[in-house]
Amino acid sequence: NAGVTQTPKFRVLKTGQSMTLLCAQDMNHEYMYWYRQDPGMGLRLIHYSVGEGTTAKGEVPDGYNVSRLKKQNFLLGLESAAPSQTSVYFCASSSGRTGFNEQYFGPGTRLTVT
Amino acid sequence: RKEVEQDPGPFNVPEGATVAFNCTYSNSASQSFFWYRQDCRKEPKLLMSVYSSGNEDGRFTAQLNRASQYISLLIRDSKLSDSATYLCVVNVWNGLTFGKGTHLIIQP
């Protein structure tokens, strides 16, 4: 039981390049989330999903897109990376209603945009 | 007023001492509260949920004061392994809002 996994672990992008971050969970959780964590800012919610085929915007969605084609996977896309998107990205999942159930986090992806 | 506020620290505490953190939240409609722990360069992990009646888990005690809108975490007999950042987490609108964290350093 791997829990929540994220790929890649590290990535360096040039401004304007695109990439997709993959999150996978094997706990059969309905809810999945993408956060970014910046020094002095805490964790901020980018997008989330309440089930397969659904997505919704979080606190800081601009510049990102997401897809949840399969229940176990949640993809985060950056279409045209900017230096302001340099951050650590965490994926999380939970079994029940968002905000009321424990969220399990992946190990994070460290992204640098130059 | 920020939604969830914490003293960033660092709190430097000798091993074996008792340490307490507070966290304030702005939305009186918040319904669920948690403490998460985050080790350096690692993901956050749930430490404990915070219930209205307060709850205790070994050396850790969490309390909620709805009237004053704050939650607290007390760590007794602190261990070197307690060194970490402690995140206060509150259900605000349609999900969880994380505080910026309090950095705790336990010194031998």
Architecture overview:
- Chain A contains no helices and eleven strands.
- Chain A is mainly β and about 110 residues long.
- In chain A, the strands form two sheets. In chain A, strands 2, 4, 5, 6, 9, 10 and 11 form a seven-stranded mixed β-sheet that branches. Chain A has a four-stranded antiparallel β-sheet with strand order 1-3-8-7, with no helix packed on it.
- The radius of gyration of chain A is 13 Å and the shape is globular.
- The N and C termini of chain A lie far apart (about 35 Å).
- With about 110 residues, chain B is mainly beta.
- Helices cover about 0% and strands about 55% of the residues of chain B.
- Chain B is built from no helices and eleven strands.
- Chain B has strands at about 5, 10-15, 20-25, 35-40, 45-50, 55, 60-65, 70-75, 85-90, 95-100, 100-105.
- Chain B is globular.
- The relative contact order of chain B is 0.34.
Number of helices of chain B: 0
- What is the H-and-E element order of chain A? EEEEEEEEEEE
Number of strands of chain A: 11
Instruction: Tell me about the largest β-sheet of chain B.
Output: 6 strands, mixed
What is the general shape of chain B?
globular
Q: Describe the biggest sheet of chain A?
A: 7 strands, mixed
How helix-rich are the residues of chain B, as a percent range? under 10%
Oligomer: heterodimer
If you average the pLDDT of chain B, what whole number results? 92
pLDDT average of chain A, as an integer?
94
Which residues of chain A sit in consecutive blocks of at least 5 with pLDDT less than 50?
none
Distance N to C terminus of chain A: 36 Å
Structural class of chain A: mainly beta
**Mind telling me the C-alpha Rg of chain A?**
13 Å
Strand content of chain A: over 45%
Element order, helices and strands of chain B?
A: EEEEEEEEEEE
The secondary-structure class of chain B comes to mainly beta
What is the straight-line distance between the termini of chain B? 37 Å
Largest interface (CB within 8 Å) is between: A-B, 21 and 20 residues
